């Protein structure tokens, strides 16, 4: 068997960090052959073609074929997994409404093309920002495909949160579990440590032994550090997060296909869980069971957590309404 994987924006930075790991089996494992479709816009074709030549030179055992195209119907033909990375970045002086409109012009047609030509089991991971609302637009444009097949990447935020907790607690990152991200993949996101554990012990208890005022630390240090980590990377590296974003994309998709043994985070379509308006693509604590994301239900939320989640969800509602005003949804 082989899985057909379409990567949009494959000629870009994250694309370059993704392709070789997928072809090496990091995403689907060593038993699954892969066919790669690299979908670009005309300006990005050369970079994607160059990556395709290098993929050939790697002589990966698992890689059956690579095809480069700027035609969406060809790009998504029979694809089982679509990683939507290519997006329109915010240009100088660009207002949020302009950004949403420019991306609606990408993700609407791509959703329609996926509905028209992808395999019936297609699963879509949106990486390109604004990821949650782009996923919402793609899902709304994909007639006949269940909306839950469209997700937005918030795994990088979760990985950043776990890494920050590991550093603060002087623990290995593998010991830190259950740190879901709620809401939007943006500065309003809520990385939630309420139920987090370190080596099976509550993180809040462990933090109290190291930090004078845990609430203040969460509010003033931890949450801003996680939410603004992208900006920190740009400042230090001189370029945005690339390998870590590709890694999170691989982990998200791997877990969706192969399942999880604990909670993780993903932007998934709400059915009204935790008061998040139905239809929004919001990040939740999730499990992956039998190839489907399931929102972890029944968690107690403090008033503080509730307020944080509500603020991020309000931003998602505003994004949805701005897109509706454009006549897209
Ligand atoms: P990049 O600018 O290096 O590459 C983007 C590529 O997309 C370019 O090659 C461009 O030609 C292509 N592209 C643009 N429109 C397209 C279309 N309609 N169809 C196909 N390809 C198209 O950007 P980079 O660094 O690879 O980032 C990609 C996106 O990922 C950005 O929107 C970025 O904000 C987002 N991102 C999301 C993260 C997340 O956690 N959700 C984390 C990091 C980045």
TrEMBL record:
The keyword Cell wall biogenesis/degradation does not apply. GO terms for molecular function: L-malate dehydrogenase (NAD+) activity. Substrate binds at residues 90, 96, 129, 160. Keywords: NAD, Oxidoreductase, Tricarboxylic acid cycle. NAD(+) binds at residues 9-15, 103, 110, 127-129. SUPFAM superfamilies: LDH C-terminal domain-like, NAD(P)-binding Rossmann-fold domains. The active site is at 185 (proton acceptor). InterPro entries: L-lactate/malate_DH (IPR001557), Lactate/malate_DH_C (IPR022383), Lactate/malate_DH_N (IPR001236), Lactate_DH/Glyco_Ohase_4_C (IPR015955), Malate_DH_AS (IPR001252), Malate_DH_type2 (IPR010945), NAD(P)-bd_dom_sf (IPR036291). GO terms for biological process: malate metabolic process; tricarboxylic acid cycle. It catalyses: (S)-malate + NAD(+) = oxaloacetate + NADH + H(+). The keyword Oxidoreductase applies. Residues 5-144 form the Lactate/malate dehydrogenase N-terminal domain. Catalyzes the reversible oxidation of malate to oxaloacetate. PANTHER family: MALATE DEHYDROGENASE (PTHR23382). Belongs to the LDH/MDH superfamily. MDH type 2 family. NCBIfam families: MalateDH-SF1, PRK05442.1. HAMAP family: Malate_dehydrog_2. This is Malate dehydrogenase. It comes from Microbacterium tenebrionis.
